[in-house]
Design brief:
The complex is a heterotrimer of chains A (306), B (512) and C (299). With 306 residues, chain A is mostly helical. In chain B, the strands form 4 sheets. In chain B, strands 1, 8, 9, 10, 11, 12, 13, 14, 15, 16 and 17 form an 11-stranded mixed β-sheet that branches. A 4-stranded antiparallel β-sheet of chain B has the order 4-5-7-6, covered by helices on one side. Chain C is an all-alpha fold and 299 residues long. Chain C is elongated, with a radius of gyration of 24 Å. The chains are: A mainly alpha (306), B alpha+beta (512), C mainly alpha (299). Chains in contact: A-B, A-C, B-C. At the A-B interface, helix 2, helix 3, helix 5, helix 7 and helix 11 of A face helix 5, helix 6, helix 12 and strand 16 of B.
Chain lengths: 306, 512, 299
């Protein structure tokens, strides 16, 4: 097991390297950040001076070498917007907000998908099944930022039940979490349903049915285990999608997480911050994938990693 | 049994005591007066020489002081300096206050002035450097007197030391802890002292009782970053904030109809302008075409549509409070579509003969994309074909504006942080920042600006600058559309008039 | 004694519709999907004829007019007007063009890249497969929105560039599906080859792979169009999509955001439209899955 872990961690390194390089090259090619920070009528001399002092006048490969060398020592570079401040600190400070949003969204997704998926499975091809199917479809067809805007319109502006932006206690978490969680729920509902249905076709359930025993509870109990496997599977596949969804949701609700930070940084070509956020996000995704695989081993004793 | 009862009695007493304590705390907290301001952006840090944004200065101006400070009318008043005197062409003497202490208790001295101004004047990597490089040296005469030496005669030195970037910072603190630490934990001489900064959420300041002007009327000052327009409006209406800046013009009527708050409009120095590419062969090369374009735009209707009337049509980059800006160009709308068509005909263009490209940013200034769309309609009305390109700011800046890649017309919004008319024209000379965009070069204009730059005879300088403005108005390398009003939502529980320099100077704000 | 000849009874012959059509008629959601998608395609093709106004025609005297069924609305602007007086319905109709161009173009490029790389990875295995799989892992560990934003920042947010960038980022699902198919077929072929003791050329393997791959590709492709359309809307919403004056639903949503309290219809209808097209595509995709690849059918 330890050898497996070690191998997986080692595999992360080249991927991380690839991620860093792709983003670095794209950012350096996307234009001149200096002008974005100076007033619109800044002189050529001022622009050149600023560019030199930020180290941006050197050729790309030199800048890349310097960046990688610093990265190896844990130095994430200099932010243009947050001068003289530690980039890693800035990004890590914003991480809890995103984790909070992601966690709450997952909770919402589970709370929606578990009962609805179970209901659908137990009432297969009857009304509840079709309805939940329709809801799941709708969830996948609606752009999640539009869902957020509509929630803001109804629950924030019209009914004034919840705050519509910012991070200010539990109430302000509700709308963003529901927005992000609803799209996940749509995905998960089908999985819960098929997991339950698979269980329902098992021998022990048929036996219970034939004997007239309460087969519903048997299905639910074993179905939950299947659902758990399904959730874990989806988590692994969708963690990157969850982070991407968080980026947009954070923008809609002005939620101060790393997604919002990244968009601000991209808009102002604050390269060090963008790079730091992407690195962090990739690490999270890879660690989450690893955790998923390990959880499989825990849940299903048949799986063993060498 | 006694052992059981006694603990119960003690517990009851404890509970009562706790409740009383709690009530006392609540009462004392209630007595604490907090002023809350909602802004659109958060500060990037407390380094006053390195942010470049008016919105950020509006916050940190409460923590620091300058040598001189503008009052609510825009006039320059003494602050850390009680008196000033121009000794000769290149030297100014400033007498400093002797009763000022830093937030950490240390006394303020001339050493701090030297440290602050020389840093921003010499360190090329600072964003504010460009506006202070005219200062060559700050000489300490004694603890409360300095001589500022400028590299050339500087008619606007007083403007310089009273604007953002001229904040005075404590030498002893920064030499001890460095800028990295100071940026997140500042020490100043201002009426409010730093408590905490939650990034992208809020800045919390508390009153500094030993401030040299006296203690402010507020115990706490909180600046919250609320980027969403609708939320800022909502927070003002619910009373969660007392001031909401950058108020959306479409919500003004709604808020004014309520009892709790009002929306006050304040002219800013920012003017929306169109820059022309006058190079030969371009559609906008002919000055008659440029004049026709200006005459085709009904600037009053433009302000009505784009800003709900909160702005003033102008014919040059002028606004109230800016020295040496010829105000004859203020509040002028030369809308004359018939004359515009005539001019086009004189230039050889009938209806449909001319095609003009309009380029501008979207989301950078309030109503920018809409402004360009309305201008497009107005040009179409005089028979000019148009194409439109509204790009996101970083794309616009890197592809068009900053890349000197203007086809015919480019939209931009320009502010004047130095409050000086010369400053407004400094990008237009033959070797100026806009030369490659406008391809306009007028040696007479250049001469006027060169003469005025170091001219200490303020009357003559004003005449030279006006003459330069006249040339620009005549030849139109750029035309001005309208001056933007800042809309600030203000709770009726406080007594305050927004300032023309857009600073949120809490010391002047009083509870009603 | 006469041999039994299988004769198809006359009644059956008349009912011999193509199996696809029969399946469609039997599936209510499939039919709805086809109808919806067809409507949108027609809207895109005939936008100038269908739309009552020019989508960029401003009418400064009729700004923020509510939809026709609300007080203050008029039958002239069925779904109301925006802050510059432009007709919402016309803008929605013209927005279909961008949505479908980006959707179809994006899927075309995506499947081209994905199928090619998937074929290479599955056929050659070994080093090639390892490299391609690494690339897939790398692309998948970056939250895709950030990658799009940064890439669009480089290449400029135009229609062509958007399609190219989508094609270059979005291909991973296709590649994986095709790779899996190729590997499966290859196994079979090698088993057969071992049996027949003959050599199997890549062309033969391709001949077996492409048919079995085309089904899943069509299914994944249809669903992918929906994903891409929503992606384009998201990018436009963030300001990085196709720029004005081209009308896109995402941009309309972004503009409408500022007017939620005063003109809610600006932000509502574009979202409804995106959802409808998305639903149509999802229904269509599900029906295609049932039709083409019974293995993938949900139980």
């Amino acid at each position: 097991m330890l050898a497996y872990l070690g191998r997986r961690v080692l595999q992360m390194v080249p991927i991380l390297f690839g991620v860093v390089t792709i983003i670095f090259v794209l950012l350096r090619l996307s234009g001149d950040p200096v002008r974005l920070y100076l007033p619109e009528d800044a002189s050529e001399q001022q622009v050149a001076q600023m560019r030199a002092s930020l180290g941006l006048d050197r050729p790309i490969h030199v800048q890349y070498g310097i960046y990688i060398a610093r990265l190896a020592t844990g130095d994430l570079g200099e932010s243009i917007r947050y001068r003289n401040q530690d980039v890693a600190g800035i990004v890590l400070e914003r991480l809890p907000a995103t984790l909070e949003l992601a966690g709450a969204s997952l909770l919402v997704a589970i709370l929606i998908s578990l009962p609805l998926g179970t209901l659908a499975a137990l009432n297969r091809n009857r009304l509840p099944d079709l309805l939940s199917s329709a809801v799941a479809m709708l969830g996948r067809a609606m752009p999640n930022f539009w869902v957020g805007i509509m929630l803001i319109l109804f629950f924030g502006i019209r009914l004034e039940w919840f705050p519509v932006s910012g991070r200010n206690g539990l109430a302000s978490l509700v709308l963003p979490a529901v927005t992000l969680g609803a799209s996940m729920a749509a995905l998960l509902m089908r999985l819960v349903r098929s997991g339950m249905i698979e269980v329902m076709s098992q021998d022990y359930v048929r036996t219970a049915k034939a004997k007239g025993l309460p087969w519903h509870s048997v299905v639910v109990k074993h179905g939950l285990r299947n659902a758990l496997i399904a959730y874990v599977t989806v988590l692994g596949l969708e963690i990157a999608g969850l982070m991407a969804g968080a980026v947009i949701t954070e923008q809609v609700f002005a939620w101060p997480g790393i997604g919002r930070l990244a968009i601000q940084a991209i808009n102002s070509l604050d390269m060090a911050i963008v790079q730091a956020v992407v690195i962090l996000a990739s690490v999270i995704v890879m660690v989450a994938n690893l955790a998923v695989d390990l959880t499989y081993a825990l849940i299903d004793p048949r799986i063993r990693y060498a | 049994m006694p052992e059981v009862r006694q603990p119960q009695r003690r517990t009851v007493l404890q509970r009562v005591a706790l409740v009383l304590l709690g009530l006392a705390l609540i009462a004392s907290a209630g007595a604490q007066r907090t002023l809350t301001v909602a802004q659109t952006v958060d500060i990037p840090g407390f380094d006053p020489h390195n942010h470049g944004l008016t919105a950020v200065e509006a916050v940190i101006t409460n923590v620091f002081d300058y040598l001189l400070f503008r009052d609510a009318n825009g006039d320059i008043q003494p602050a850390l300096a009680t008196a000033y005197e121009q000794v000769d062409d290149l030297t100014w003497r400033f007498t400093l206050r002797d009763d000022v202490v830093w937030h950490d208790g240390e006394p303020f001295t001339a050493e701090d002035v030297k440290f602050s101004l020389e840093r921003v004047a010499r360190d090329e990597s600072l964003f504010e450097h460009d506006s202070f490089q005219q200062i060559a040296e700050v000489e300490i005469v004694n603890d409360h007197e300095v001589l500022i030496h400028t590299s050339g005669p500087d008619p606007v030195l007083l403007n310089r030391v009273s604007r953002k970037g001229a904040d005075i910072v404590p030498a002893h603190v920064i030499e001890a802890v460095g800028w990295e630490s100071f940026s997140v934990n500042p020490v100043g001489t201002g009426p409010f002292r730093f408590v905490e900064w939650v990034r992208d959420d809020r800045v919390v300041l508390e009153a500094f009782p030993d401030h040299w002007r006296g203690a402010p009327a507020w115990d706490r000052l909180v600046f919250r970053a609320v980027p969403e327009d609708a939320t800022r409006v909502g927070e003002l209406l619910t009373g969660n904030v007392d001031i909401a800046v950058n108020f959306p013009s479409q919500d003004v009527a709604r808020v004014r109809a309520t009892d709790g708050a009002d929306v006050i409009s304040q002219p800013t120095t920012r003017i929306m302008m169109l820059l022309f590419n006058t190079a030969d062969g371009k559609a906008t090369a002919d000055p008659r075409v440029r004049e026709a374009i200006e005459l085709a735009i009904d600037k009053e209707l433009l302000v009505e549509v784009v800003a709900d009337g909160f702005g003033v049509p102008v014919e040059a980059r002028v606004s109230p409070g800016v020295d040496m800006a010829p105000m004859k160009y203020y509040d002028r709308n030369a809308y004359d579509p018939e004359r515009a068509v005539e001019l086009l005909a004189e230039a050889g263009y009938g209806p449909g003969d001319l095609t003009i490209a309009l380029q501008g940013p979207a989301g950078r200034y309030p109503g920018d994309a809409d402004t360009l769309a309305v201008v497009q309609v107005m040009l179409n009305d005089i028979g000019v074909n148009t194409t439109l390109e509204s790009l996101e700011w970083s794309a616009y800046n890197s592809r068009i504006w900053g890349a000197d890649n203007v086809e015919n017309i480019a939209l931009i919004g320009l502010a004047n942080s130095l409050f000086d008319g010369w400053f407004a024209l400094r990008a237009l000379p033959c070797d100026g920042a806009y030369a490659k965009r406008t391809n306009w070069c007028n040696p007479e204009f250049d001469q006027l600006l060169a003469d005025a730059e170091f001219n200490l005879d303020l009357e003559e300088r004003a005449r030279q600058i006006e003459a330069a403005y006249d040339i620009v108005a005549e030849e139109r390398p750029m035309i001005a559309l309208f001056q933007i009003d800042a809309l600030v939502g203000v709770s009726n529980a406080i007594d305050w008039q927004p300032r023309p320099d857009e600073m949120i100077w809490a010391f002047d704000i009083q509870p009603k | 004694m006469s041999a039994t000849i299988n004769r198809v009874p006359r009644s059956s012959r008349q009912h011999r519709l193509p199996p696809a059509l029969r399946s469609l008629l039997r599936s209510p959601t499939g039919s709805i999907g086809v109808v919806l998608v067809t409507l949108f395609v027609l809207a895109a093709l005939f936008a100038p004829q269908l739309a009552p106004f020019d989508p960029n025609a401003t009418n400064l005297r009729a700004r923020q007019v509510p939809p026709a069924w609300i007080e203050g609305g008029s039958a002239q602007n069925l779904l109301g007007t925006d802050q510059l007086g432009r007709d919402i319905l016309s803008r929605l109709i013209f927005g279909t063009r961008v949505a479908l161009i980006v959707g179809l173009g994006g899927v075309a490029l995506t499947s081209l890249v994905g199928v090619t790389l998937g074929l290479l990875a599955g056929y050659f295995r070994g080093r090639v497969d390892a490299i391609i799989s690494r690339i897939i892992d790398t692309l998948l560990s970056i939250p895709n929105v950030l990658l799009y934003l940064v890439a669009l920042g480089v290449f400029g947010p135009s229609l062509t560039m958007l399609i190219i960038v989508i094609g270059l980022v979005n291909w991973t699902t296709f590649a994986r599906v095709v790779r899996g198919e190729v590997i499966a077929v290859r196994e079979r072929e090698f088993v057969d080859a071992a049996r027949a003791n003959g050599a199997r050329s890549p062309r033969v393997i391709l001949k077996h792979v492409l048919p079995s791959v085309s089904g899943p590709i069509m299914v994944v492709g249809t669903l992918n169009v929906a994903t891409i359309i929503i992606l384009e809307a998201s990018l436009s919403f963030l300001g990085f999509g196709v720029q004005a004056p081209t009308v896109t639903w995402g941009r309309m949503l972004a503009d409408g955001r500022d007017y939620l309290a005063t003109a809610w219809w600006l932000a509502t209808f574009p979202g409804v439209t995106i959802t409808l097209l998305g639903l149509g595509l999802l229904f269509l995709g599900d029906w295609l899955r049932d039709l083409l690849d019974p293995r993938l059918r949900g139980r």
